[in-house]
Design goal:
By secondary structure, the chain is of the alpha+beta class. The chain is 45% helix and 9% strand. It has three domains: 94 residues, Integrase, DNA-binding domain (Double Stranded RNA Binding Domain); 116 residues; 178 residues, hpI Integrase, Chain A. It has 15 helices and eight strands.
């Protein structure tokens, strides 16, 4: 056991980093005659940096040794370090285990975290969640208003009920004032359901973490009081009616270059708006005729490989000649890519009266795919990046990328037919 005199000169003279390349502890050298001095105080020297720290060590009544860190030697003088060490050593001698005390404080801190803090820990603990899901959860917690910044475990059923009603009322008021983006379809019902639903999910997750850490039993989920109050909502069924697709497509082609291409990609791939607007050139593989979107950009967190049909490949080849930036659809905002998909659809709505969202185009793609002859249902799910993990039959049926490319073209041909795009006979595409 290495020792050193606990004087400033001796402590300053300890080599750091230690020549051995490993941490080294020097304990207070004890006088040969007389009472102990600074017994249990030591200096921990790093093996890789110049750091030196005061440490204290003693044994619990059961004989188990415990060591605690006091702080850096350049911050604490020997006298201050010894004053702090005496308190910690006394605790250990009296049976206070510093490890258990640290865990207790951590449990206590976790039990008293705010909803916003719990949200960040939840997102960190689930790295496979897409950025879209991150945005949704953060948006939902913002809708919780004052409940976002209070200790989660203190939220009552009445507070949850009051905020549920408040979200609905606020969005209804904004709609009446013409301050919402969704017009008459925005009632606040779905927003209220989502906001309090996220609170319920975070509550259950946090309660599990606290109890797994050995904390006190977590209170009853306050959102359970909303069981009879959840707003009934219906899944949207809106899409561009097949007989109006020629008019819609013609209006899309009249838009500016970027907006036109956004809408066409929406029609012919069914991809989500965030995936289209944020499409990167390193995700586009023209030679393979494949779009490869990494899981971090997908709603389900899984890599998505979409074969290009002829319309999509021609569009991307044309866009490739326009620039060499990171994004297929560049923009001037913080994200450096466009966010104008919705604006494009609003312009089409003004010209044609056909009101749809980017997700309605996804629904339209799925509907045409479903009506395409000889197209397996599993292929539709794969083209839409829908999970097949819960489909037992799909585990027995394989669809190769070559087969999927053929199915993607079948759907594209059917969409072209509905859009009134003429097929040019006798033309062979190169590449």
């Amino acid at each position: 056991m290495a020792t050193a005199r606990m004087t400033k000169a001796d402590v300053d003279g300890l080599a750091a980093p230690d020549p051995s390349g490993k941490q080294q502890i020097y304990w207070a050298e004890q006088p040969k005659n007389g009472p102990p001095k600074h017994q249990g105080l030591g200096v921990l020297v790093s093996g890789t940096t110049g750091a030196k720290s005061w440490v204290a060590q003693a044994k619990l009544p059961n004989g188990t040794a415990r060591r605690v860190t006091i702080g850096p030697v350049h911050v604490f003088s020997i006298e201050k370090a010894w004053d702090a060490a005496k308190t910690k050593l006394a605790d250990i001698y009296n049976g206070v285990d510093p490890r258990e005390e640290k865990r207790r404080l951590q449990r206590e801190a976790r039990s008293n975290e705010t909803t916003s803090k719990v949200l960040e820990e939840f997102l960190t603990a689930h790295p496979r969640l897409s950025q879209q899901t991150h945005r949704l959860y953060r948006w939902a917690v913002e809708r919780l208003g004052p409940l976002a910044d209070v200790k989660m475990r203190t939220i009552t059923a009445k507070q949850a009920k009051d905020q549920f009603e408040q979200v609905s009322a606020e969005i209804r008021a904004k709609r009446a004032a013409g301050e919402t983006k969704g017009g008459v379809n925005v009632t606040g019902r779905t927003s209220a359901n989502i906001a309090l639903g996220v609170l319920g999910s975070l509550w259950n997750w946090q309660g599990t973490q606290v109890e797994l850490d050995g904390g006190e039993p977590w209170p009853r989920n306050p959102t359970l009081a909303l069981k009879e109050l959840w707003h009934p909502t219906e899944r949207r069924k809106r899409l561009v009616e097949f007989d109006r697709l020629p008019e819609f497509y013609a209006a899309a082609k009249k838009l500016g270059e970027i907006r036109s291409d956004l809408v066409v990609l929406g029609i012919f791939t069914g991809m989500r708006a965030s995936n289209i607007e944020g499409l990167r050139w390193d995700e586009v593989h023209l030679s393979e005729k494949m779009i490869r979107v990494p899981g971090k950009r997908m709603k389900n967190g899984r890599d998505f490989n979409l074969p290009m049909n002829d319309i999509v490949r021609d569009l991307l080849v044309a866009r490739r000649t326009m620039g060499r930036g990171d994004f297929v659809f560049p923009g001037n905002g913080r994200e450096r890519h466009t966010r104008s998909f919705n604006h494009a659809l609003k312009k089409i709505a003004a010209d044609t009266g056909i009101v749809v969202s980017p997700h309605d185009l996804r629904r339209g793609y799925a509907s045409i795919a479903n009506a395409t002859p000889n197209l397996p249902y599993l292929a539709i799910k794969m083209l839409l990046a829908h999970s097949t993990s819960g489909d037992v039959t799909s585990s027995y049926i394989g669809i190769s990328q070559t087969q999927l490319a053929g199915y993607a073209q079948l759907v594209a041909d059917e969409i072209k037919r509905h859009c009134g795009i003429e097929q040019v006979e006798g033309v062979v595409k190169m590449g």
